[in-house]
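To: structure desk
From: M.T.
Subject: fold request, one chain
Message: Could you run this one when you get a chance? Sequence is below, nothing fancy, just the single chain.
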Amino acid sequence: PHFTLLHYASFSSSHHPHPHPFINYLLIMSELHPGSTAKSSGENSSLWFDGVSIPDDFPMLGSTSVSCDVCVIGGGLAGVTAAYNLRREGKDVVLIEGRSIASGETGRTSALLMGATDDGIRHLVHMFGEKGASLAVASHRAAIDIIEENVKREKIECDFERLPAYIMPEKNDGSHVKELEKELEAARTVGWSDVSFVPQAPISGFESGSSLKFADHGMFHPLKYLVALLKAYVAAGGRVYTRSEVNEAKEGEVKTVAGGVVKCKDIVAATCAPMFGGMRTLLRAEPYRSYCVMAKVPRGSVERALFWDTADPYHYARLVPIAGDSVSEYLLLGGGDHAVGHMPKDADQPFHEIEAWGRQRWPAMGNIEIKWSGEVWEPIDSLGLIGRNPLDAEHSFIISGDSGTGMTHTTLGAKLVTDLIMGRSNEWEDIYSPSRVPSLRSAGRFMRYGMHTASAFAGRVMPGDVTDIEDIKVGCGAIMNKDGKRMAVYKDEDGTVTKCSAVCPHMGGALYWNATERSWDCAAHGSRFDKKGALLNGPATSALEPIN
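Reply: Done. Structure tokens follow.
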């Protein structure tokens, strides 16, 4: 467990002709494995990709050798923002991506800009005390400021907008008033004065009950913003290599499968899931699936604000403008979070619940036109894992564990890592450090995560979904146990059957069929594979073993 990624890299290069499989984590967690043909990590595409031209003409590193000050691994918002920041500081930067830019979770977000984590301020005070919670809230609010500054500096048209946010009770029966009062008290304790009780959230015709109003939240279009930052970075002399699979990284050097080498002083692993630190970081967070739906509403029928409730899992809403449409706009609704591999029996249940929640509040919404799901990593204490790589080299950094607030976590993470590389102090360093000692108050979550992981391994001996391939519908997958083997079986639309091992190659967790995104998901540590076994998300480092 204490062998970290860089140790593995050094060991594999000096003792073996082929890198240890764990080294491929660098590629997997940066975005997607080349074995997958999906443009992002799910079959349902989000709205954010529509009409956005993501640069796709960057060179492969190939077998060449390049030098730079900093090598940033990962082409999502965390990696692009870190590369942009460091180039503005005068650093010579190489951004390297195993697949294509924005092919991971950045394009699957809801892009709400929240001034604190989605677990609430009271929870942060409970975990980190008043001082730590104050720093956490300040960092997320600063992240919104940074995004706004970048939008103005680079003249980015990404629908950025400052908005108020409303927390509504799950039920208007008075039972959640005390809970909201405690959240208000916590907000004022950490210095957030622009928070107030209102008798009603601004939803015409719906009695929400007493709600909290927060000032200075926001929203934007994440891929328009990412592409603009990327272009500014390239225009300033930054280099980008895509489709360049990394198979080794150690202090001062990053190597690719094709024989390319990036020689550098500092390495930044900007990924959705924890990359460095081995089990020490993997055990600090758990992967969750989260869901979004979109429907048109008459323009002006929904207040320009962010909304969410106190349910667990909670629901939320925001507007998304439609270019050239003066009559309608999209209402984005989200929620339905659950641990990876713990799909409800009815895969569409989260979408139906979210839609029902929305229609109860905004009955003018039309039919659901777009739906998708994404992956978030929930740290046991709600704050991301950002900073120096634990147990490893001084010049290795990570940005990971977004806790459902990825747009602000990635932005503040890029700021924090930039400061550390530039030798500046940053008051956020300790609360986000991947080496921080977890509070005993996070023990409950740690135990729950452990139970989920244990159940994933126990799943290997559970009965299959079907006993006969004929019972599998076309376009669907199912688990079968046959001849002592647990098989992941997928039947294509033309009836062609693909059979793979249903045991995750990472650490042997059981796989489950994700009918929403048509993928095989591991409940142990969140690895995901497409319907035919190609790798989508790590920490697994290889595709599923095919079975004849």
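Reply (cont.): The radius of gyration is 23 Å. Let me know if you need anything else for the meeting.
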